[in-house]
């Protein structure tokens, strides 16, 4: 979930001039977006809102940004808010992204949790991929887990939840269908074992699909966030850096409560909990780092 302009969007700006957004209207829109989604738009990013909203406003017949903001504020069905969530999130991801971190999850964290769970009444391992985009991360985790412990697929002892604010990319995740380009970083052995060929590319096997559930979730909907369940591992990578600090803190506090004792939180390589939380313990795991709940 990354609010940056893609190359296609930049080209589109050149073809059709965006509606100009004055400072006052930008501030009002940015405040609305921050309140509803937690995404922080600095004034230097005003061009992103202009480029992404102009065409939508033309479709709706909104002549000014004030008109569009009023539509959003009065939209009881929340349909336009959902459309805005799609417009403002660019879902850059790939299979096995930051592979060294995933390797340490497979080599050290997963065996540790499985050993502990096998001694408990509730033996289900629950993993949450927060901001899962089009599904590459949760499917990667499922493949790594089954590769290490094949019995997890048969026993259904593993459950992975993938959530995102963008309903369009969640539909792609649910389908499990990807192009050859999408699988460019995936080892060929994984492609052969866990995918089936389709006319347009590949589809995730039913064995892997059965371990993963997808759901819409706005991370600043704290009432719902607090009630999505308890987890042994949370992957929250490359999402938090686009939130304002107060939203980051609230989300991390919720994640601490949702993480079971002995659980792990994985962040993106450029992200940390510095200045946000002292509840977690930073732990070295092989060549990687993770936050641990004692």
Q: Which superfamily, in CATH terms, is the homologous superfamily of the largest domain? A: Vaccinia Virus protein VP39
Strand content: 15-25%
Give the biggest sheet. Answer: 7 strands, mixed
**In order across it, which strands form the biggest sheet?**
6-2-1-7-8-10-9
Secondary structure: elements and pairs:
Blueprint: H1 7-15, H2 23-37, H3 46-60, H4 65-73, H5 79-87, H6 99-117, E1 125-130, H7 136-148, H8 151-155, E2 158-164, H9 167-175, E3 177-178, H10 188-194, E4 195-198, E5 201-204, H11 206-209, E6 212-216, H12 222-225, E7 231-236, H13 245-258, E8 259-267, E9 281-285, E10 288-292
Parallel strand pairs: 1-2, 1-7, 2-6, 7-8
Antiparallel strand pairs: 3-5, 4-5, 8-10, 9-10
Question: Can you summarize this structure?
Answer:
The protein has 294 residues and is of the alpha/beta class. Helix content is 45%, strand content 18%.
């Amino acid at each position: 979930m990354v609010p940056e302009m893609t190359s296609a969007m930049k080209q589109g700006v050149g073809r059709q001039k965006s509606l100009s957004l004055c400072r006052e209207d930008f501030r009002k829109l940015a405040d609305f977006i921050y309140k509803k989604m937690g995404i922080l738009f600095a004034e230097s990013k005003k061009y992103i809102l202009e480029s992404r909203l102009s065409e939508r406003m033309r479709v709706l017949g909104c002549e000014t940004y004030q008109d569009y903001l009023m539509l959003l504020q009065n939209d009881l069905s929340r349909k336009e808010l959902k459309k805005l969530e799609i417009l403002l999130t660019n879902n850059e991801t790939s299979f096995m992204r930051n592979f060294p971190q995933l390797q340490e999850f497979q080599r050290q964290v997963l065996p540790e949790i499985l050993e502990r769970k096998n001694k408990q009444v509730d033996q289900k391992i629950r993993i949450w991929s927060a901001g899962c985009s089009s599904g590459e991360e949760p499917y990667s985790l499922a493949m790594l887990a089954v590769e290490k412990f094949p019995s997890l697929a048969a026993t259904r002892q593993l459950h992975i939840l993938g959530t995102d604010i963008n309903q369009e990319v969640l539909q792609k995740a649910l389908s499990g269908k990807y192009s050859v380009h999408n699988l460019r970083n995936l080892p060929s052995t994984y492609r052969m074992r866990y995918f089936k060929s389709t006319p347009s590319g590949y589809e995730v096997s039913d064995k892997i699909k059965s371990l993963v559930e997808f759901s819409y979730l706005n991370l600043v909907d704290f009432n719902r966030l607090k009630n999505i369940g308890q987890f042994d591992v949370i992957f929250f990578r490359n999402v938090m850096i686009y939130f304002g600090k107060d939203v980051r803190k609230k989300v991390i506090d919720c994640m601490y409560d949702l993480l079971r004792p002995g659980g792990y939180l994985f962040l993106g390589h450029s992200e940390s909990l510095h200045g946000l939380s002292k509840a977690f313990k930073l732990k070295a795991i092989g060549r990687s780092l993770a936050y641990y709940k004692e």
